[in-house]
Write a structure and sequence with these properties.
The chain has about 190 residues and is mainly beta. About 0% of the residues lie in helices and about 55% in strands.
C-alpha cells in the first residue's frame, strides 16, 4: 500500500530491494524490498521526476525549479538557478545529469555544477533519456500552439528533429543510438529506428 494519499508522478529503481517514488505536494517514498516508507522531502512542491546514478546518488525534480539530491540517507536541496518547473531527470553518470522542464528548460550537471543549456525549443519538456552522454533525447508538450518535438543532444548542442505529426509527447526511451521511442496523449507512439 501507498504510504501517503497523494498522486505519484515518478519512479526509479536500483533493483528489487531499492526504489524511489515522487509525487504531489512533496510526496517522497522509498522501497526497501518489503514496504514503502514515506520520507520528508522538505518541500510542498509537486515532485515530477526521479533518477539515480546509484542508490547513494538520487535526483528528484519538480515545480518551481525544485531539485533535491539524496546520498541514500540525507536529502539536500540543490540550487537550480531557475524558478521554472522541472519535469524529468536522467543521467549517463553521477557527473553528467540532465534536468528538463518548462519552456525548454534544460539544465546540465557537469564539472559539479548545474548550468543552463540552450535547448532549441520553447516548449515544455516532459521527458529525457539517453543511450550515452553524447546521445540524449528530450520530448516536449504543447506550448504557445506548437506540437510536441523530439530533440537530440549530440554532446555539443541540442537539435530539434521536428514536430510530432499528431500530438504532444510525454515520454521517451530507447535501446541505443537512433533506436528511440516517444509516447504521448491521443494514442501517440513514435519510433525513430535504424
Amino acid at each position: 500500500p501507498s504510504p501517503v494519499d497523494r498522486a505519484w508522478r515518478g519512479l526509479w529503481s536500483a533493483g528489487p530491494r531499492d526504489a524511489w517514488a515522487v509525487g504531489d505536494r512533496g510526496a517522497l517514498a522509498r522501497w526497501d524490498g518489503e514496504r514503502w516508507t514515506a520520507r520528508p522531502a522538505g518541500t510542498d512542491e509537486d515532485l515530477l521526476g526521479v533518477w539515480g546514478a546509484s542508490p547513494r546518488d538520487v535526483w528528484m525534480v519538480g515545480r518551481k525549479g525544485t531539485v533535491l539530491r539524496s546520498d541514500g540517507q540525507a536529502l539536500r536541496r540543490v540550487d537550480a538557478g531557475t524558478a521554472r518547473g522541472l519535469r524529468a531527470v536522467w543521467g549517463c553518470s553521477a557527473d553528467d545529469v540532465w534536468l528538463v522542464g518548462e519552456r525548454g528548460t534544460t539544465l546540465h550537471l557537469e564539472g559539479g555544477a548545474l548550468r543552463d543549456v540552450y535547448s532549441d525549443t520553447p516548449e515544455h519538456l516532459f521527458g529525457v533519456w539517453g543511450s550515452r552522454c553524447d546521445d540524449v533525447w528530450a520530448v516536449s508538450d504543447f506550448n504557445q500552439g506548437f506540437r510536441g518535438t523530439l530533440s537530440h543532444w549530440n554532446g555539443r548542442f541540442w537539435t530539434s528533429l521536428g514536430r510530432s505529426p499528431r500530438a504532444p509527447l510525454r515520454g521517451v526511451w530507447g535501446t541505443g543510438e537512433r533506436d528511440v521511442w516517444a509516447v504521448g496523449p491521443v494514442a501517440t507512439l513514435l519510433h525513430l529506428g535504424p
